[in-house]
Amino acid sequence: MSSVTLSASASANAARRGNVLGRRLLIISAWLVFVLFLVLPLFIVLSEALKHGFGTFFGAIFEPDAISALKLTLLAVGISVPLNLVFGVAAAWCVSKYEFRGKSILVTLIDLPFSVSPVIAGLIYVLLFGAQGFFGPWLREHDIQIIFALPGIVLATVFVTVPFVARELIPLMQEQGTQEEEAARLLGANGWQMFWHVTLPNIKWGLIYGVVLCTARAMGEFGAVSVVSGHIRGYTNTLPLHVEILYNEYNHVAAFSVASLLLLLAVFILLLKQWSESRINRLKASAGEE
Predict the structure, then answer these.
(1) Where are the domains of the chain?
(2) CATH assignment of 53-286, given 1.10.3720.10, 1.20.1530.20, 3.40.50.300, 1.25.40.340?
(3) 188-199 pLDDT, tens digit each
(4) How many Å apart are CA 75 and CA 70, to the nearest integer?
(5) How far apart are the C-alpha atoms of 221 and 219, rounded to whole Å?
(6) What's the pLDDT score for residue 127?
(7) CB of 110 closer than 8 Å to CB of 166
(8) Fewest Cβ atoms closer than 10 Å to its Cβ: which of 19, 109, 160, 227?
(9) Could you give the CA distance from residue 11 to residue 95 in angstroms, rounded to a whole number?
(10) Where does residue 35 fall: left (phi above 0), alpha (psi -120 to 50 degrees), or beta otherwise?
(11) Count of alpha carbons within 13 Å of 272, Cβ hemisphere only?
(12) Angle formed at CA 30 by CA 28 and CA 34, multiple of 5 degrees
């Protein structure tokens, strides 16, 4: 009997050691992939940007074309993200709260930018709003320019970032159900009061996360914006396009310097997200203590 017990104990210990070894191998593999494909490239970008010192680095960043590209990038993000915020909340509300004809089509269209190449999206806008496009004559007649101007860049950015807010909110709203809204309606709350006091507290984390993803994606968009912008220096070049031009001109230090600026902006967005989450958690904790 004791030999059977010892054998079972040895088997259990061997299985436990095997599980520990497998877990450690998975963790090490994950860290290796993380370092090789994320940390190392970022380190190379920063090291190349600072290869010739901070003077060259700041000179590339504060060069007039780089400043213009930065302003245009922030402007495009500042317009497209609020538009996607409104659309994402409205679309998620409709999909999760109502049943209507074409609901499945709407859900499919929300996911469309994930499957369509950004370059194709840019070409579609050129065919619609370009000088020789479908609406080109009417736009020219009314002196409205969309392609090779800010409106085209905003349209392209909105298209590629449409799914992020909506896709974060739809499952949250579906999980929430409609009972709380119905109770608020019975208590006399209007639509805005129901959204602000009932729906928003339940979706705020998904909303923040969706906005952060949307902002990061909008800042780094290249393909669609490249097609509709025209690559006009100082006018329609965003930061990613400016990096491409500098790199193609073999001005690698300046290209990596501007690329590092994009990296710093992305890190700032992530830090802002973490700060807002910790701030809200502290407010909730203090409210609970009271």
Answers:
(1) 1-49, 53-286
(2) 1.10.3720.10
(3) 777 777 778 778
(4) 8
(5) 6
(6) 93
(7) yes
(8) 19
(9) 53
(10) alpha
(11) 13
(12) 115
